Amino acid sequence: HPEMHEVYRFALFYWPSGIMFAVSGFIMPYLISRIMGVGPLGIYASAGFFVAAFGVLQNGFRTYWGAFMYSHYKDELLKIRKTHSYIGIGIIVILGVFILFQHPMYLFIGQAFQGSRAFFALLLLAPLLDLWQQTTCYGMYLAKKNEESLAINVSMILLTVPVAIVFMKYCGLIGAAYAAAVVAVVRFLIATWRGQRYYRSIRSNVETLAGLCILILMGASNTYFNGRYVFECGMVFVLFIVTAVVYRHSLIELYRALRHAC
Q1: Which of 155, 193, 161, 208 lies closest to 180 in space, CA to CA?
Q2: Measured CA distances, 83 to 29, 118, 125, 171, 249 (Å)
Q3: Is 36 helix (H, G, I), strand (E, B) or coil?
Q4: What gap in Å lies between CA 149 and CA 198, rounded to an integer?
Q5: H-only helix segments in 48-172
Q6: pTM beyond cutoff 0.85
Q7: Mind listing the pLDDT tens digit for each residue in 22-50?
Q8: How do residues 97-124 score in pLDDT, each as one tens digit?
Q9: Cβ atoms of residues 201 and 84 within 8 Å
Q10: CB atoms within 10 A of CB 117
């Protein structure tokens, strides 16, 4: 039956997603252990505390947003576009808060793993961008083009290996964080490009690209100003101001909506 053919086709390209997710989470630790040893791997893995803490919010949103998109992509376009902007603002604020309060948070990790403070913000880019990507990539699923999503996942795994090897060769353990951030940004850009081809959920490309640049600068500033906490805080506040300028219309809308709700 033609309708069942579509179901089988969609399922065929969708089922490897869980495997791809597991492989993508395994490959970087494997490369670190093979190239640098288990000691650096422990330091790198300690930053996973922050990724896991954020994962609760991320998984909750993914569960809600998938159902919402399939139910309302035709009649709630304005709300979907606003949500994309609000999520962009939210992940910038979350990353900034993590950087500002890194000292008390690292008390839970222990003195032996303080080395990951130099790059934990770079590792947070992957889950943050994955959350934001949920508001940009659903066009592929709505158009039943999930083979493109599978191709993106496979290509990102293949990209991780050479990028990680090159960065670790020249930058050491921090190079692994650089590689993870590069792959996360490339994944976001490609998934957004393909998703927007089938369903326009972004109202301003300039706004989205500016938000992406702010996230990258904020993550990199944590590494560049490592050990100089005042400069780290200063950079975060400067980028908060830039965010307020870039997203000024969205912030005004959000303020009015909250005021009306109260």
Answers
A1: 161
A2: 34, 32, 19, 37, 13
A3: coil
A4: 13
A5: 48-72, 77-100, 102-106, 120-133, 138-142, 146-171
A6: yes
A7: 787 788 989 999 999 888 888 888 887 77
A8: 999 998 887 777 767 677 888 899 999 9
A9: yes
A10: 22
